[in-house]
Amino acid sequence: MPDAVQLIGEEKDFSSNVIDYFKDILNSKPDRNDVDINMNYHIVSVFGSQSSGKSTLLNILFNTNFDTMDANVKRQQTTKGIWLAHTNELNTSSDSLTKTNDIFVLDVEGSDGAERGEDQDFERKAALFALAVSEVLIVNLWENQIGLYQGNNLALLKTVFEVNLSLFGKSFDPLKNNKVLLLFVIRDHVGVTPLSSLSESLTTELENIWATLNKPSNCKDLSLYDFFDLKYVGLAHKILQNEKFIDDIKSLGDSFAFNISNMDPMKTRGIDRTTDENKIIEPIFKSNYHRQNLPMESWSIYAENCWNLIENNKDLDLPTQQILVAKFKTQEFVNEALQLLLDEFDKVITDDILINKSMLIEKLLLLKNKTLNYYIDHASHYTNSIFLEKKTVLINEIDKIFKPKIDFYLNHLIGILINQLKTSMKNYNSANNNNSPFVEKLNANIKDTNLAFEKDVKEFQKDQLIDEKTFDELLINFSKLIKDNEKSLREAHLNSIINRINKTLSIKFKDSSINLLSHPEIDVWDKVLNMFNITLTRILVNYKVETTREFNEKDGFEYNNEKYSEAVEDEYDFHLGFNKEKNSNIYKQIRGNAWKTLDNIIHDYLKEDSILSILKDKFETKFRYDENDTPKFWKNEIEIDQAYKVARDYSIGLLDILSIAKTKDNVEIIPDVQLPKDDDEDAEDDDIYQDEFGIYHSQKFSHILNELQKENILKKFRKQINLSVLDCKRSTVRSTTHVPIWMYALLVVLGWNEFMMILRNPLYVTLSLLLLVAFYFINKFDLWGPVLNVSQSIIGETRSTIKEKLRDFVLDDGELSKMPSSPEPHSNTASFQSQQEKQHYTSSGTSRKASNPVRLDSPTLQSQASQTLSAPTTSFSPIQSTAPAKEDYINEKVEIQHVPPYSAITE
Ligand SMILES: Nc1nc2c(ncn2[C@@H]2O[C@H](COP(=O)(O)OP(=O)(O)OP(=O)(O)O)[C@@H](O)[C@H]2O)c(=O)[nH]1
């Protein structure tokens, strides 16, 4: 039997213990979340005079544990404020306590307690509170008070009626028909006056009271029975008829238990209540008494809110209060459900499933359903609109938690799809697939990409992991992203087209224009211009739009005095899905690039040096060759001078042609589109600029050379052609200078004997013939080079061998001279000869005779020899040519060939 708890304290404060009291009750139930248990509870309040046996009745009837007064000790008030006790056992006619749904009983402080005196405030507030929360109001009366119109009974009932009207009168809805049962329990009913008589008296009293009430206008015509059901029960005297007293309470218990207990108490006792006339049981609890649609767990919050409003004399609007409680509790369940989700989320949604769509959807769905189910289980008992409202809040919160993970997957998917799109279009570029235009291929790929994305996102949306709005937003954003990529893919393809065209143009322009400019003629620039237009047209032929335009006088244009129906500017389509204007701009860009390329090629090629070399080349050709490209043969200097003048004037004329690009009609060539600026060029740059040599140039296309440059070239050119002419004249002089004939005659006369001697000697003849034949073949096959090489290497080899031998000899001999004197006779001889040599060298100086044999072991000679050896090979030395071998010196048989000095030879 649980103890009662004070709900409203003596000081009219709501007790904080109530929440815990309810928690304990709920926790004691294993199936606390069961809807039947949580919602099917009843509230019963009891009113009556002080010490009228209220607590005694409640304790017996509901098996509760309210404090009761011990009359043997002192007659005083025991219940102060409002107490609450819970029960799910009733004392019925059954042999044992009958289990019922949960019943909460409110024992209200006695209405006429001496302690509060004339203070009616609490009584009124307590009545208001009891009406706000209870289904049944037990009014405890002594039998002897009925019909006496005394005590606080009438006042109490009047108060009850008044507060009832203030609570439910304004918003009375007959369809809802919510009522309160006023259960009058007549105590100490000894039976002298029958209960029916007492009931009538009381009913009359109540109706009279109702009639005297000040009712709101909308309740004027309403009767007491629109708000209340009345029931009267008599209980025997507790002291005098205790057994009957208990039986009467048990009978009352039957009424309470009926309809709400699991068993029909009548049947339990084997009594068929329909056949037992004396025991017709009227059920106490009816569905239309149930006022609040709140689960048991939130009743304490509701009761507290109501009491606070009552206590502060504020309007008590019960539906609003119930909605407030519903809002509070449902939010609490939303939070609990979300916490439950967060606790599991990271464990279930692991990184490895983030890129696995089906797994991700499955796990997210699992978590979502679990979270929602938790909420539904707990919050569905509250006001439906609030329940649904908070359910939406919960779903939004779940979506927020899921969003980063879904976004991760979708970003991953977007990355893959964009890459696929790019790769596919890259392959188009590399495959150079001209069968379907780029734009068609791009559009088809974009359509596929959009569909693939939509398909995946739809799977999330289908399972309500993404709402409709997000679904639409995702598709719109993806479409924007694709548009950006489409733009960049088009730009990239356009750039590749432009680059390809530029490259081709550059190669073709380079070959053609250098070829033309290196052989300049009077119409060279017309040819360059023509080459430019033809090359560009050919390269762009695939992009040209075939258009037939009607000729009219206005649009037609004239060329070579003929009218053409074609428009001046061709129309191009670069197959990128661009409009006419954009295509035209691209064409202009390409044309500008082409002009720029041509401009660069021309200006790079036509530098001072290259122009000088062109002029020189042209001069040489004109000067040295005739019209048939045959070399000219000069007879005299006058011819040379004439040819020189012609060639020079011709070449100088070419300089004028090359220095400015203009047609033969003397019209300067100006690009028909704006030339793109180089990166390092300032957009504001003037056309005139100064180079590192301080020379001013014009950036205009046609301006190749300025006057200063031309002057420089001319100066150098003249210098070079003068040299060329001088060479020519010299060669003429050489070819004309020949040996006089008399010299040949003299040669025959003087050399007659020698010729004869050779002719007469067969050896000389054979030798001469051999030499002649050798000379013939060497000359015929031009073998002078190899012959010269062979001769040189032979001489070189011989020379180095001799040098080496001589060095070895000198060194060995030097060492010998350091040795002590030998007793052998030739050493004395050597010493003597050395002396002689010395004298001889000293006396003879440079005019030595070859007949005097000498040794080279003297220090002087050695030093001379070594000096000679170390001297450069080109220097003249008497020893060098006749250097004897080492052995010859040792055997003293070597003779030095004394060569006379150079002066002597020349003499
Ligand atoms: N004569 C008579 N006495 C009763 C009856 N019921 C209870 N009593 C006695 O009346 C006295 C007061 O009983 P309580 O149950 O404490 O009365 P109460 O109305 O709860 O008192 P308060 O809570 O102080 O207002 C006790 O001594 C009871 O034994 C009854 O039916 N008849």
UniProtKB/TrEMBL annotation:
The chain crosses the membrane at residues 762-778. Signal peptide: none annotated. The keyword Chaperone does not apply. Its main location: endoplasmic reticulum. SUPFAM superfamilies: P-loop containing nucleoside triphosphate hydrolases. One of its GO terms (biological process) is endoplasmic reticulum membrane fusion. Residues 817-907 are annotated as: Disordered. The keyword Transmembrane applies. It comes from Henningerozyma blattae (strain ATCC 34711 / CBS 6284 / DSM 70876 / NBRC 10599 / NRRL Y-10934 / UCD 77-7) (Yeast). It comes from the Eukaryota. Residues 760-762 are lumenal. One of its GO terms (cellular component) is endoplasmic reticulum membrane. GTP binds at residues 48-55. GO terms for molecular function: GTP binding; GTPase activity. Residues 824-850, 859-883 have a biased composition (Polar residues). Residues 1-738, 784-907 are cytoplasmic. Residues 885-896 have a biased composition (Basic and acidic residues). Belongs to the TRAFAC class dynamin-like GTPase superfamily. GB1/RHD3 GTPase family. RHD3 subfamily. Keywords: Endoplasmic reticulum, GTP-binding, Hydrolase, Membrane, Nucleotide-binding, Transmembrane, Transmembrane helix. This is GB1/RHD3-type G domain-containing protein. It is a multi-pass membrane protein.
